[in-house]
Design goal:
Number of strands: 0
Order of helices and strands: HHHHHHHHHHHH
Shape: globular
Helix content: over 70%
Low-confidence stretches: none
Radius of gyration: 20 Å
Largest sheet: none
């Protein structure tokens, strides 16, 4: 009974962080026109308060997940929850759009760190038949946070101002971070020699190529329409993507523990369908929450 209660506390804490992260993420879409007006910049520039964290979470997600598996999931979760906690007051007191975008981009690493590590902590020790329930709760809480953030965001921004979106979020997220020292399970202790041995299997080349390839593709998609599809920046980015993509595939085929398992896309038809469904769903979801508030 005690173990079950402790597990429930762990799940509740991690889902609470998911809730606030989702709320904070969808609120950013509402901020874009307000921030653009205050800092006297274009909507395209202000949109980077949403695009910046999306970039960092997309590019760093797999590598942070591998770090969590290598050195410890609880420690990784706590570090990136701290990253979000530190970035919030910087966003709230940002004197210009550059500082705000930079802080949001830095804070976006928390999406890549807390989500996968948190799910792994919640699923650890559970039977495979019960992990789907944990995943469903995680997604449900994220959707609840996204809808709540959108519903309450307009009221909060009109009554208190956009800066309070970040400043108010700082208090519950700090409370969750502090509680994690009492509730989350401790990582296994390891010697420096064991840590060095584990890090030798880390897919460094794959990580670098993945970040370069994803960054180049995202830059082409995001800036192609504004700069022109034949502009030097877009063409160079496209060239980098076309060169790095096959290098990434070749590197991951040889890696002992690949950051992007190629077999995931070739061996299991069910896995391929799940990946395509997830990609399509999140593309539509993020497009709605980013674009609609602008209009």
């Amino acid at each position: 009974c005690c173990c079950r209660g402790k597990r429930c506390a762990v799940v509740a804490l991690l889902l609470t962080m998911n809730l606030f992260e989702a709320m904070n993420g969808t609120l950013l879409g509402l901020l874009i026109p307000v921030v653009a007006a205050e800092f006297e910049v274009s909507t395209e520039v202000a949109a980077w308060i949403q695009l910046g964290p999306s970039f960092t979470s997309s590019m760093l997600g797999p590598s942070i997940g591998m770090v969590a598996d290598t050195i410890g999931r609880t420690g990784t979760w706590r570090v990136f929850a701290g990253v979000l906690m530190v970035s919030l007051p910087v966003c709230g007191f940002a004197p210009d759009i550059f500082t705000l975008v930079l802080a949001r981009t830095f804070g976006g690493m928390s999406w890549a760190g807390c989500g996968p590590a948190g799910f792994a902590i919640m699923a650890e020790g559970l039977e495979a038949s019960k992990r789907g329930v944990v995943s469903a709760w995680q997604q449900s809480i994220a959707m609840l946070g996204a809808s709540t953030g959108t519903a309450l965001g307009g009221i909060l921004i009109s009554v208190m101002g956009w800066r309070w979106v970040f400043l108010l979020a700082m208090f519950p997220i700090t409370a969750v971070w502090l509680l994690s020292f009492c509730i989350l399970p401790k990582d296994d202790d390891m010697s420096r020699a064991e840590l060095r041995t584990r890090m030798k299997t880390f897919d460094t080349k794959g990580t670098i190529l993945f970040i370069v390839c994803c960054g180049a593709v995202m830059l082409v998609i995001n800036r192609g329409n504004d700069l022109g599809w034949t502009s030097p920046t877009v063409l160079i980015s496209l060239g980098v993507a076309l060169v790095s993509a096959p290098l990434l595939v070749a590197t991951e085929r040889r890696a002992a523990q690949p950051i992007l398992p190629i077999a995931l896309f070739t061996a299991d038809p069910i896995a391929i369908k799940c990946l395509l469904l997830s990609s399509g769903t999140w593309t539509a979801f993020m497009g709605i929450f980013v674009v609609l508030p602008i209009f």
